[in-house]
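A quick aside before the break. I want you to see a complete sequence-to-structure record at least once, exactly as it would be stored in a machine-readable document. Don't worry about memorizing anything.
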Amino acid sequence: MRGRPGEILFHLGVLALGLLLALLSLRYAPSWDWTRDARNRLDAQSAALLAGLDAPLDLEVYSARNGPLGRRIDALLAPYQRTAPGHVRLRFIDPERHPEMARKAGIRLWGELVIRYRNRTEHLDTLEAAHIRNAVLRLLSRGQRWIVWLRGRGARRLDGPGPTDLGRFAAALRARGYRVQGLGLARHPRIPDNTALFVLAGPTRPLDEAAERALRAYLDRGGALWWLLDPAHTDPLPRLSAQLGLIPLPGTVIDPAAAERGDHNPLMALADYPAHPLTRGLEDPAVFPKAAALSADPPPPWRAVPVVTTGDRAWNETGPLEGRVRPDAPGRGERRGPLSLALAFERPLGEGRQRLLVTGDGDFLANAYLDRGGNRALGLRMTAWLLGEDRLLALPPAPPRQRLKPSPAMALVLGVGGLGVLPLGLALTGLFLRWRRGRE
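That is the input. The structure line, written in tokens, reads:
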């Protein structure tokens, strides 16, 4: 009995502490992310995008906030509010209580997300971090940007599924909000005025006079150009090369550094990134298969700088690519590295600057190589630089997903152990315990 008042006070104190914590949980919602790759925290790319907002970003969720779906969506979008509380505004609209608002917004699915920024709108029915990030990217871009590529003349296809086509890269461009369209200059001898970027994806045959005239007119208007060359067809457009002072070096780049990195293809070049806004922050090197080295001496006011180079031990092999090759023919134009794999051209034009990019390889963006090294990130960076979207160049590259890739032996052990040994062990343990209890 003596200790009973103390016990009562103790239990009352525990109850008061529990009530206090419950009240605090209604006002604050602290969270911690202990995962190895921070998958439950706002990724660095999304955080960088939100840091660049100069107007409110409205997130409208068409669902009841207190329902199971609404609570899951609220937990998904809460990091956006915490990261940019002054710019991100979250609002839940229940379609049952406000059907006219859902009808006016064009809502088709329960839980659909509408993102609004500066009178531009994006609808999302798949709520994942990558989809939300790409939608914000599209809203930050200056409206619809048309990327037009040359169709025909042996050029690579941006809508093709083949290993040398660029279909997967075109899909990545569309995911970022760009409009991608092919154009045959033989039938349409003028590049449309709304073209933000024109791509020459490795044409193997010279352009006819009408096509060259259309290309020159486009460049004279200040259009951006991306020219992907290949060693076998290093100069199908000699007039354009002369206009830019572009000099493709003979032969194919050989880079011993690629073999040391684990790539056994002797014709693979490992990219290095000189200091330039286009490649600032890129760490994973891209790989360029069968690349041509480039040199340039542009006439004023053009200025050319290398944005992708090789290492010091690379060279452009002009002899047969068989057996053991070595840099032993300087008389045939062979040079030691570093060699330029991509040149960025700029000149002042009006109140802005005109940008061109020439790469000595088109395979690094092909379907077969797009996900090798930093190829995808480099290609998207090149696109943003050509379009003048310098703000997007500051985005950190997306971190690679941490995936468990067990060896065949480990997969066998896990499969047999999880499906056979572990259930059998549990069954035997249960039988043993039942046998012991029966004996007692």
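Two observations worth writing down. Residues 399-403 have pLDDT under 50 and may be disordered. The CA atoms of residues 290 and 319 lie 14 Å apart. We'll return to this after the break.
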